[in-house]
Specification:
5-stranded parallel beta sheet; Rossmann fold; globular; alpha/beta; 2 domains; homotrimer; 4-stranded parallel beta sheet; about 15% strand
């Protein structure tokens, strides 16, 4: 059945969606995942074209949208990397979006500036999907993160979450925190160095939603309580003094030794990837590691999203 | 019915085509546009592969060919941008074309050097389509420009045209002027600074075809007479002395104020896009603006072209 | 019939295959070539996705894999060039491969480091195909080279081969030499300057296989005996002293004049392409030239490979 509330919808922020919306998405994603596993995916979007406008590079998110579209028989057009840079210098964003709006059936956009996706949605007649803009919004990442939590625990409510790393500039972390305001986490720990704490507007939203949260500096202090640890990268460049970075980096690195010493056996570690060294490779083969599952979930969740928005019957 | 005159044909210059050829193209394009609007495009080119050899960057033309191919179920392969540059440095053009000729069913080429498309057509057995080479030829742009005029006015003959901007180095402008020699415009104004006037060979062709044309320096002098104003960009770098550019730039910028003051209500403004500031954004929402329609027409016109050349029955 | 020995197989080195394996591959390739010629290729791989992970640039190999996949109805995702470079700097190879393993049904990898493809195959669950890594292995190139010899001579055994050029660093030449150890060449001449002779491990393998080979410095000395001349490029940068290069370059350039003077009429010249000036353009139109045929054979051979590995019934 075509989901009317979803048809033609823009995806700008995770906060545009209700729990019911996400429930529909997750059910559809589950069907997609089943069909992928069984190797029999119907060509629901044959003849459709998805524009991928990546003004900022992103291999993982881009390829996952591309895979999602192509698994369903759709085609993609677009640009990324160098080409996008030169585009960004010349033509204004509105004209570029109008071009894609004339060619494609939906537009996926990534852009470094906050608000670009919303602006694109205002210009375009076709649905626009934000694949990350500015420092806060990456709604499809949050969708697949929540889907993965639900797959692992059977629920998103009632769990203790820790979000670790750069909560100030990292859009995946912000989106995940905002997404939790749609649910009832038992407790949320925001673990970061003081310089990289979550932005006031994000914390205001947590308060408004009544989410019990606490800001802490050291993972060790809370690790034993967590059901879900969402790790993100801390970039050395964020620190005015590199020695400051060297001092803190150890506190934000997740190792097998640390987990085995201090975490609950049920703990699951998420990461939007790519990672550099914030999760050591020896975690990969432990039951804690859920980030590869999470990465693979990008495809069925984005397949579900595209088919709901484009009105394809599953 | 397969159009025999079109099957396997190279597209090098707009002057290779007759009015009858273009009539067939426009009728096919109209069918394509209808099918696009109704969302039921048959996969006429399924299994076919179109090579896109963009030795010079072009997002708009490239994506429009790619969309046209994919809407009809064809696939594309190829290169653009940086990669093309490094290719251009190493292997000779003939070997690169032979490679694509061995892989694909048709080759779309853009290249900075005049004559590249013709040379490629001599090397390749498969049809070659010029997506812009050198300073004069961009035949598929001219096709969609003419198609748009016809869609707007019901005819291409009998209208008063102004072509504005860089008529010396701009290949879209030259191709449009040359294309008009296949028709009977009532009058053609070539509006440019003296340095950027149309090339002698283009004017010779106008004379040969008996097109009444006049070269003028200021748009204001002729704007009131025009049915169609074709705007192109003037690059500052064309002027040996930047102060010269500053002096003239105002005369070549099309604004809402100017149009409302001096143009006929029926005037329609075309532009091959991308634009920088030669048409101000406040024109976009006036009835004068036809350039977004024109850009969208790139897809059905190129769909028609590909299906005629590859012998697909509509 | 699905070829069980091929299903899900990694393709790392040509030496992983037996003559029987290659016989199956060549028969399948012949069917593919017939279907391509007749313009009726079944969509055997519809719904499948092939990841193209080109960490090192390669237009020809990449586009030939892409064409092979798309001719059979499969889709491709991936990266190449600049983007690949920045990837190579950040994320580790294993994580990148895991990402592609989660998205696609097979992974084609090119990488400058020896052993990358094998490492990727260890990380990935899906089949991995080496599209060239390090200095020795380019198995799919060797496959199409052998297929071309067989098409030209009806056999690979019993012929006299010359392999010319950079036998030390050139992976296409090394792979071809290694491939010949699976067959019974009558004689194999390794023609190169002393600095660029074949590596010890390659020669050890020739000896082990009982292939009669000889290292020579001048093509002229052996040209008259050859049935097959496999030419590869010598890069000026390989010589510590450029004057050394200038001295030898003439001995390694294949011209029409040389061939007409000294070669047997049955000689056929192969080259993995791209070439710069090691075969002059006047050879192209002689019966000696088999390198364009060889290049075109990349598509049916890779179509055969993909369909065997992915278990598609021809």
């Amino acid at each position: 059945m075509i989901q009317k509330g979803w048809l033609g919808r823009d995806v700008i922020s995770i906060l545009d969606f209700t729990r019911d919306d996400l429930e529909t998405l997750f059910e559809t994603a589950e069907q997609m995942k089943k069909m992928l596993t069984e190797g029999r995916v119907p060509r629901l979007l044959e003849g459709r074209i998805i524009a991928l406008a990546f003004f900022e590079p992103s291999t993982r998110t881009r390829l996952s949208f591309e895979t999602a579209a192509k698994r369903l028989g759709a085609e993609t057009i677009g640009f990324a990397g160098e080409e996008a840079t030169s585009l960004a210098k010349g033509e204004n964003l509105a004209d570029t979006i109008r071009m894609l709006d004339g060619y494609a059936d939906a537009i996926v956009i990534r852009h470094r500036y906050e608000g670009s996706a919303l602006y694109a949605a205002e210009v375009a007649e076709k649905p626009v999907i934000n694949a990350g803009d500015g420092r806060q919004h990456h709604p499809t990442q949050a969708m697949l993160d929540l889907y993965t939590v639900k797959e692992l625990f059977g629920t998103i409510d009632g769990l203790v979450y820790g979000v670790l790393g750069d909560l100030r500039f990292g859009r995946a972390a912000s989106s995940f925190i905002l997404a939790l305001t749609l649910y009832r986490p038992r407790k949320l720990y925001l673990v970061s160095p003081p310089l990289l704490r979550a932005r006031p507007e994000v914390k205001a939203r947590l308060e408004e939603a009544g989410v019990a949260y606490e800001e802490v500096e050291r993972l060790e202090d809370v690790l034993g309580e967590l059901d879900v640890l969402y790790v993100t990268r801390i970039q050395r460049e964020r620190f005015p003094d590199p020695r400051e970075y060297e001092k803190v980096r150890g506190s934000y690195r997740v190792t097998r030794e640390l987990l085995e010493k201090a975490a609950k056996p049920e703990l699951r570690v998420l990461h939007p990837l790519p990672r550099v060294d914030e999760i050591t490779a020896n975690v990969d083969t432990t039951p804690y590691a859920a980030y590869f599952l999470q990465a693979r979930n990008g495809v069925p969740v984005r397949m579900a999203l595209l088919s709901l928005i484009l009105g394809a019957e599953v």
